Amino acid sequence: MNKFKQILKHLTSFLNKYIILSIVFVACMSLGEYSFFNYCKSKQAIAELKKTEKNYEKHIEEAKEDLRQLDQNKHNLERFAREKYLMHKEKEDIFIINEE
To answer: What's the CA angle centered on 19, arms 13 and 25, to 5 degrees?
Structure first.
């Protein structure tokens, strides 16, 4: 019986070390600048920024295509100015019709 108590005492002191170490590890991972929660938030923010970057790249490609078409001939330039900026010639009226 005495030997069992000694083994149990050594086992509990051994387990206490690992329990304390585990508590310290969990505290370090959940608190501070480099915590697991901040890591997850940062990873999500990066994913959103990459999605935004792809959206902007698509808009840039569309703008480059518009610029290329505008440089090709004068008729496209006039059509672009009329459609996008509602420009008109003298003595000319523009009517805007919204279809909903």
So the answer is: 140
